[in-house]
Model the fold of this input.
Amino acid sequence: MSAFAGRYPTRYQAITIHNIRKQPEWQRLDPELREAVEVVSRVLPFRTNVYVVRELIDWDKVPDDPMFQLTFPQPGMLDPEDFRAMRDLIRSGATREEITAKANEIRFKLNPHPAGQMTHNVPYMDGKRLWGLQHKYRETVLFFPAQGQTCHAYCTYCFRWAQFVGIEELKFESNEVDMLVEYLKRHPYVTDILFTGGDPMIMRARALRRYIEPLLSPELEHVQTIRIGTKALSYWPQRFVTDDDADEVLRLYEDVVKAGRHLAIMAHFSHPRELSTDIVREAIRRVRNTGAEIRMQAPLVRHVNDKPEVWAAMWKEGVRLGLIPYYMFVERDTGPKNYFEVPLAEAVDIFHKAFMQVSGLARTVRGPSMSAWPGKVRVLDVAEINGEKVFVLDFLQGRNPEWNGRIFFAQYDPEATWLNHLKPAFGKEKFFFEEEPYYQWWEHEYQDPLAQRVPVAEAELVMAVA
Done:
């Protein structure tokens, strides 16, 4: 039996609004806050577990504790008018149908699928749209395995919250492994496949192997890197240590490495406390021993990690444990963004102050980065050029590969929190990417997707008739 069996919970137990009252910690919350959690959780997903509740949250500091803010719905996450409307419905004893109808009305106002995820990222093959697959950047394909569209716990800021609220038209998933393999065969310039969700590591090892093993065949040698986006190391490290198929998961990782592929675990760590327990450190050690690489990333989130000291401590500890700092993201323009967002000017200041506190080994991190419609846009700095205060930005990755690394400038705006809030600097009417065409990856009427550059307006027309 594992040495951790008696120290940490080994049986996964999800905690939701339906069973939270059984937890002793629930009684420590102010009644008004308990009601707020219940109200918001009728609109946005709420799911945590006993490990998070017992090991990561400091209940003496609730509600300000960052891990509580990260995992428990907060009253400020809804517009005040929407919050009051939902609260009054619940208090009045409204039917389940009435509450669900109001919740859905609020949800559709929260931009459930930002950055063209449902409109411009879903490719075609043989005239059929491939739901559950996204191809935004030339080298990288995202796949959403059907069994991996939940998580060990939900982050309150999650930009994929729409996957978890029970509305079928907002779900994005697939279990068609053959479709994925065929698509990759036809696109030899794809080098990376990212399994994402939800969280693919919620799946049993056997299900995970069903998706990954076919990608190791010689005819897909151009797929050099397999990435798994996960927060399991943070929220349920037992997945790699004490779960009954933990060893089987690690054997799969070893098989990927032995097949000559690079396996990258894209681990979301939002706060240094997630790296503080003995069991997460053991999980990291075991994963790294398979030959897999662990990269750490997270968005900058108000109330959770909006201080440079938090990021510096997290990067330093990550490097000590063998992790590679990768991204500081800007909170996406979806869901409860008004509660969590940080202005770009503040974000770049936090990044620079944290960056100055770490050694070169941690300076692999990039940010603050917006995963916006045209691509991953980084805020490099605030500068004054020819008497004009501007944001200096560049493309870490663009829909058009020719945009990658390109620097551009925007008027300084201390209130801006997203790319679409910015205006071009130096009297220009449009940013360059608003005028130039981008590569269209979809295979519809074009034989060779690389041979066609489709202007934005034409791409939108294609979507309108698809």
In short: Residues 444-452, 455-466 have pLDDT under 50 and may be disordered. The first helix runs from residue 31 to 40. The first strand starts at residue 14 and ends at 15.
